[in-house]
């Protein structure tokens, strides 16, 4: 004997199932944007007026760039505090923006995949 579906059976797609299941989801772009904004806010608060020592810590933390960091810090220190701070903050912004957005997107995509469906939405509950 075969199983027969009722006449009023309707096949529903994944989005309708998620709607029927209930819960709350947020888009991945909002999570990535929040992570990026929080990171920039933290760096702005921690850096304040970015000093040459901050650049030395950022670049000097990588062993391959120790010589480069020392040279940049000397050059920035010689050019004066205002000019040095402007240069350092623009270099630091370039370095940080290259990685923060990518890391934030990876985190958001990882959270998106936790529910087994990579659809651009992170299921909260």
List the helices and strands and how they pair.
Blueprint: H1 14-21, E1 25-27, H2 28-47, H3 52-60, H4 66-78, H5 81-113, E2 121-123
Antiparallel strand pairs: 1-2
Summarize the structure.
The protein has 125 residues and is mostly helical.
Query: Strand tally, please?
Result: 2
Question: What is the count of helical runs?
Answer: 5
Given as residue ranges, the uncertain stretches (5+ residues, pLDDT < 50) are none
Which structural class matches the secondary elements?
mainly alpha
Mean pLDDT: 68
Q: Could you give the order of strands across the largest sheet?
A: 1-2
The gross shape turns out to be rod-shaped
Helix content: 55-70%
Determine Rg (CA atoms, Å): 24 Å
First and last CA, distance? 41 Å
What kind of sheet is the major sheet? 2 strands, antiparallel
The tally of domains stands at: 1
String of helices and strands: HEHHHHE
Provide the β-strand percentage band. Answer: under 5%
Keywords: Membrane, Transmembrane, Transmembrane helix
Transmembrane segments: 37-59
Entry keywords:
two-stranded antiparallel ribbon, single chain, transmembrane helix, 125 residues, mainly alpha, 66% helix, rod-shaped, 5 helices
Give your account of this protein's structure.
There is one protein chain. This protein has one domain (about 25-115). It has five helices and two strands. The chain has helices at about 15-20, 30-45, 50-60, 65-80, 80-115; strands at about 25, 120-125. It is about 65% helix and about 5% strand. It is mainly alpha-helical and about 120 residues long. It is rod-shaped. The model has no long low-confidence stretch (mean pLDDT about 70). It has a two-stranded antiparallel sheet.
């Amino acid at each position: 004997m075969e199983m027969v579906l009722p006449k009023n059976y309707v096949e529903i797609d994944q989005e309708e199932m998620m709607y029927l299941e209930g819960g709350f989801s947020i888009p991945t772009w909002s999570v990535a944007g929040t992570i990026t904004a929080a990171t920039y806010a933290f760096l702005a608060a921690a850096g304040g007026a970015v000093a040459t020592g901050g650049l030395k810590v950022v670049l000097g933390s990588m062993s391959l760039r120790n010589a480069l960091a020392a040279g940049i810090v000397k050059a920035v220190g010689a050019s004066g505090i205002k000019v040095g701070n402007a240069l350092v903050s623009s270099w630091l912004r370039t370095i940080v923006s290259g990685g923060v957005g990518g890391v934030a997107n990876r985190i958001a995509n990882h959270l998106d995949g936790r529910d087994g469906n990579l659809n651009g939405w992170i299921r909260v509950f």
